[in-house]
Amino acid sequence: MDEIIEIIKELDWSPLYISLKTGVVATIISFFLGIYAARKVLKAGPKMKAVADGILTLPMVLPPTVAGFFLLLLFSRRRPLGIFLFETFDLKIVQTWTGCIIAATVIAFPLMYRNARAAFEQIDVNLIYAARTLGMSETAIFWKVAVPSAGPGIMSGTILTFARAMGEYGATSMLAGNIPGKTGTISQRIAMVIQDGNYLTAGVWVVIVMLIAFGIIFLMNLLSGKNMKHIKRW
Amino acid sequence: MAVDITFQEKLGNFTLSMNLKSESRRIGILGASGCGKSMTLKSIAGIVKPDTGKIVIDDKVLFDSAHKVNLKPQNRKVGYLFQNYALFPTMTVKSNIAAGLRGTKQEKSKRVCEMLKKFQLEGLEDRLPGELSGGQQQRVALARIMAYEPGVILLDEPFSALDVFLKDRLQQEMIEMLEDYKGTVILVSHSRDEIYRFCEELLIMDAGKVICFGKTKEIFADPQWKEAARLTGCKNITNVNRLDDKTLEVPDWGIRLKLKRKVPEDICCIGFRAHEFIPVWGEPTVNSLPVKLSSMAELQFERKYFLKGCSGDMEEICWFVQREWWDRLDEKGLPDYLEIPEDKILLLKG
């Protein structure tokens, strides 16, 4: 027990901040992009839909290391896009926190997109028609009618996205690496300390991750519960 | 002309061709499921786009394929009442009613207050639709439509999902609420009672085609067309051969009918309403039909007899008997013949 207290006292907390920051930013980006993509795909014709859906879901199906490999190819400073970003915006992706965010976003995005799409498909289309005949603009219909009606699906998509983004390991380690205090996320720290045979520290991090995960899901359910009074318990 | 609608639209395996011109304020469209009734309303509202045609309501052109006019549903000022009311489940009653309104906050909330008062929804303004009864939901849906003053109101089978008691009350309520509405109301239904109660003029549809249009009461009294007779609730419809201009042969019933009026040449069927038969015991009278019992169902106020003729394999004949006749039937047994009063025969075209 004393040993554990000692570990907690001496713990480098930076992976916690990095993981939380990455999770939050990646979730916010995925939230809007995912909803936008879901709406676009819903409007598309069947062939276009099949193609777009395949591409947008791919990062979830591929092993994260494969996604990481592609990202590395794309953003490496020896490649056109990497060179362009660095020379024009002075932006480095590989081995930086931005890389963390990009990796987490790419891997977690399909969860948001798929959940949002499924939720939009479930909406009673008469609600949309009614809103149109009532003279509501398409933007108003989308944000005031469609998104709230798809609320539960979008909410679960957000939770899953956050969970996935925060726990991302494979693509992150390839694109951003594991630089302590910069790109060292909790998942990478756990892997590192286990390699050193330091099981107790790993255990402490595991408990922290579990507490965060549970706390966030609990909080989101609580918040969303207020907006979802119309859903009956059964 | 209040309503002038002509359009064609390909729908799966048939073409919907609509033709409706009327000055009436209460128009009904009656037809079986899947005949294109709802599609007609959706075309008027701009939810679907017809292939060709023209839709004009109170001199406002909503759609005209020849001049490439196709107003967005947002600009048509058409109130559409959906079968399930389509209230926004996440919005309160207040926000539902305000959803389509424009103007400042004060203007909107003033209008919402007026509507809440008019539709007796005061005290419910902060509830969600899921917390309201069926009747209250209908009132909110109507209030939401009326709030933005539509030029025409379309009712898409508004009562078909309700139980009998609620249906009767809500129909009455709807009629009262729409009483002082100056625009046109078009009600689509497969229920003849609803249409009869509600509409001055009636259009009957079958498989995408208009069968007939006219005053509701006149069509019910004399449907003229086979499909119209069926949809207005005529139970006995059978093919006939015209022998001369006053005699009809009814092969399925094995009898000949003598008529006082002249039979037009294009008559191919007759219809006879199940309540109009007169029972005959003993010797046959003019235009009477020999029958045997096939089955019987007793309801609270009437008995439904399903009869077959003596000739064997024919469609069953329905005879509905009101309560006051039951004693005589129980005493004398089933009649040997059913007399068909000739003035009650509906002469039908195919």
TrEMBL record, chain A:
Keywords: Cell membrane, Membrane, Molybdenum, Transmembrane, Transmembrane helix, Transport. It comes from Faecalicatena orotica. Residues 16-218 form the ABC transmembrane type-1 domain. PROSITE patterns: ABC_TM1. Gene3D superfamilies: MetI-like (1.10.3720.10). It is a multi-pass membrane protein. GO terms for cellular component: plasma membrane. The chain crosses the membrane at residues 16-38, 50-74, 94-113, 141-163, 202-223. It comes from the Bacteria. This is Molybdenum transport system permease. The keyword Signal does not apply. SUPFAM superfamilies: MetI-like (SSF161098). Belongs to the binding-protein-dependent transport system permease family. CysTW subfamily.
Automatic annotation (TrEMBL), chain B:
GO terms for molecular function: ATP binding; ATP hydrolysis activity. Keywords: ATP-binding, Nucleotide-binding, Transport. Coiled coil: none annotated. InterPro entries: AAA+_ATPase, ABC_SmlMolc_Importer, ABC_transporter-like_ATP-bd, ABC_transporter-like_CS, P-loop_NTPase. SMART domains: AAA. Residues 1-232 form the ABC transporter domain. The keyword Hydrolase does not apply. Pfam families: ABC_tran. PANTHER family: SPERMIDINE/PUTRESCINE IMPORT ATP-BINDING PROTEIN POTA, SPERMIDINE_PUTRESCINE IMPORT ATP-BINDING PROTEIN POTA. This is Molybdate transport system ATP-binding protein.
